Amino acid sequence: MLHENIDAQTAKGIKELRNRIKVPSSVVDEKINIATWNIRAFGKKKRDKASIHYIAEVLSNFDLIAITELAENLNDLKRVIDVLGPYWKVVFSDIAMDRGGNSERIGYLYDKRVVTFTGLAAEADPFRKKNKKTGEYEPEITWWRSPYLASFRAGRFDFVLLTAHIRWGKGAIDRYDPLLQLAEWVEKRRKSKHVVDKDIIVMGDFNIPNEKSPLYDAITTYNLQMPKSLLGKHGTNLAKKKRYDQILYYKRHTKNINDEGGVVDFYKKDFRKLYPKKKFPDMDKESFTYEMSDHLPLWIQLDIWTDDEELDQLIRKKS
């Protein structure tokens, strides 16, 4: 971390953040921490220098982070990476060239000392049907913002992340079909003969209020499920009451998710210890969300030492 040329108050804020954040350390070649974080309008308006250092401090607790609401302007992302240090790299999608996607990207930020990008990076396209009149293949729905997938390796574990930011719409009914089709898309990709890897972890901001919602039923239609460490306890809005953000996986394929995981509460119902009134007299909770975010990061830990699993697979094949 390169927390250089900061004032005393920002240094105090960083120490306050470290007191608030409780994430176990990753272990090289054994365990990594991955997260999804909707960083509100990240890049649309230049953030204060203190905010750049605070965001970098939060991100530094993870080895790989999916970022949603990443704007077309990447300058603030570059500022954050400069604080994180030269080992941090990013893979990101492009924006939709219309107003429907809110000019947002999805990005994967990772520490190359721990995680390697292995080549696959692509947007998911919605299913299309042939129009009998025109002969053209046309999408049944639109996701507005295309889900983005990328392949990575940590230790000897290869996996694919797919991240989405489902539009809010006019209500839950507008989210149901996009979520259901995303679940179907992931399932078909998993079953594809030449799929890169069946260890697919689905994450992002799905705007799902809770696990009892029909929206949660939609995204889990084809047996995607939540890691045990997140069940029943992960509110990712600042009040920690709504489970908008999710991490889901296929239990039958991915055995590497352990019992560590949760939400990073950098807010703690108090932003003034990070942004004191003397220095930020006009800040209120709403403006705070445009400096940090209105979402909290959601994270899990992966075991990446796979030798025993590989031996077990060999025993089963040879028995």
Question: Overview of this structure, please?
Answer:
- With 319 residues, this protein is α+β, with helices and mostly antiparallel strands.
- The protein has one domain: Endonuclease/exonuclease/phosphatase (Deoxyribonuclease I, Chain A).
- Helices cover 24% and strands 28% of the residues.
- It has helices at residues 8-20, 49-59, 75-84, 172-191, 214-219, 285-289, 307-318, and strands at residues 31-42, 64-71, 88-92, 104-111, 115-123, 128-130, 137-139, 148-154, 157-165, 200-205, 245-249, 257-263, 298-303.
- Strands 3-4-2-1-13-12 form a 6-stranded mixed β-sheet, with helices on one face. Strands 5-8-9-10-11 form a 5-stranded mixed β-sheet, with no helix packed on it. A two-stranded antiparallel sheet has the order 6-7.
- Strand 1, helix 2 (49-59) and strand 2 form a beta-alpha-beta unit.
- The longest helix has 20 residues, at 172-191.
- It is globular, with a radius of gyration of 20 Å.
- It starts with 7 loop residues before the first helix and ends with a helix.
- InterPro entries: Endo/exonu/phosph_ase_sf (IPR036691), Endo/exonuclease/phosphatase (IPR005135).
Strand runs, count: 13
Question: For the terminal residues, how far apart are their CA atoms?
Answer: 50 Å
Overall outline:
globular
Oligomer: single chain
Q: Give me the CATH architecture, please.
A: 4-Layer Sandwich
- Please report which band the strand proportion falls in: under 5%, 5-15%, 15-25%, 25-35%, 35-45% or over 45%: 25-35%
Output mean pLDDT: 93
Report the top-level CATH class: Alpha Beta
Looking at the structure, the CATH topology is: Deoxyribonuclease I, Chain A
Number of helices: 7
